[in-house]
Amino acid sequence: MNFALQNTLELLLIIGLGFLLQKKVAKQDLKGVKVLILSIALPAVIFVALLKIKLDSSLLIFPVLALAFNLIMLAASKYILGISLSKEQSAKKRTIMMLLPSLAPGLSCFPFLAIYLGDDSLALAALADVGNKIFVLIMLYMLAMNWYHLRSAQEGKPSTSNKLKSLGLALLKEPINLVLIVGLLLLAFGLNLDSLPLFLKNTVLSVKTLMTPLVLLFIGMAVRIKSGEFGLILSLLVRRSGITFLISGIFVLLLPSLAAPLVLLLVVFPQSACSFWPFAHMSAVSSMEENDQQAEPTFDINFAVNILACSLPFSTILVIGIFSFSEVFVSPLPLLLIGAGMTIVSFVPYAIKKIKGIKSPEIPGQYGTYVGLNTNHQSSEEN
């Protein structure tokens, strides 16, 4: 069996195992898995990734390009991707703006780059991921906390009396951000992973291996997808992919001298699945809202989990398709045509509803309750 396909099936199988465990996992158990991921496994992954980077000024263009893509997609998420949602669905719109501009190349892109393009392209992709990490770890966190404080101020909550100070303190308290700071400091002093004591290096590497199975099991156990929401998520992912193809096509058109492997890297990397890290920020906001007893949630946590669950298989299948027909995707014209076609197709359900004058309903509890993370729904059930 093809290695890339085998790797994809392995990831989907772990999600399937998590799905089968849904009825056996209690609320507190699922919440404990979330804490393990966000406080231990995910920081370890970030720490190892940072300390493997060899800084070279000539390669800064790759993280800059990745960060520019993130920012373009953030704008697209607000003005294009979220257009299918009504004004009343503000929590879903904010969730889309957090998740859809983010990238998780580690699971959905890197394994296929290694088998199809080799270690050189994989190293460039890892470097580009630094720009994506800056976006998802810092910028999106600041955006999430800014939304939280603005909405708290509107409701007259005292927690926003010193917005900048509380924002900074919350940023420093996050394990992910603490690890990021420590890793960058070590790199500034010329240290890397091999510079650490052997016992510490082995401990971090051991914890790092927990990340992939824990995240995939967590998604499988937490996902609650109803047919109506699945259609919405699929259309959003198709639209996200279409816009990404258009951006890649324009870039390849402007730089016709690029080698085929680099073109494929520029096409595949932005098609990575949505990152898990914005979900960490939204979960932190959800926890604060539980303590503040805020009436309306800033984010729709159920919706976020379902996007993550759909994004990974969607992206991995798409990446396999790109590599399987690589001769098509190295030319700008097919990229532009495919991107335009996918974007137009994604608007068809929305256009039909507009023509028929049907407004998408927003029914409380329509998509089920996400056990252990949707804190507002959880509190109401327990009371």
Nutshell version of this structure?
This protein is mainly α and 383 residues long. Helix content is 73%, strand content 0%.
Question: Characteristics of this structure?
Answer:
single chain; mainly alpha; 0% strand
Please tell me about this protein's structure:
There is one protein chain. By secondary structure, the protein is an all-alpha fold. It has one domain. 73% of the residues lie in helices and 0% in strands. Helix 1 packs antiparallel against helix 15 and helix 4 (90-99) packs parallel to helix 15. It is globular and about 55 Å long. The model is unreliable at 362-383 (pLDDT under 50). It comes from Zobellia uliginosa. The chain crosses the membrane at residues 6-21, 33-53, 59-76, 96-118, 130-150, 171-191, 203-223, 230-252, 258-280, 301-323, 329-352.
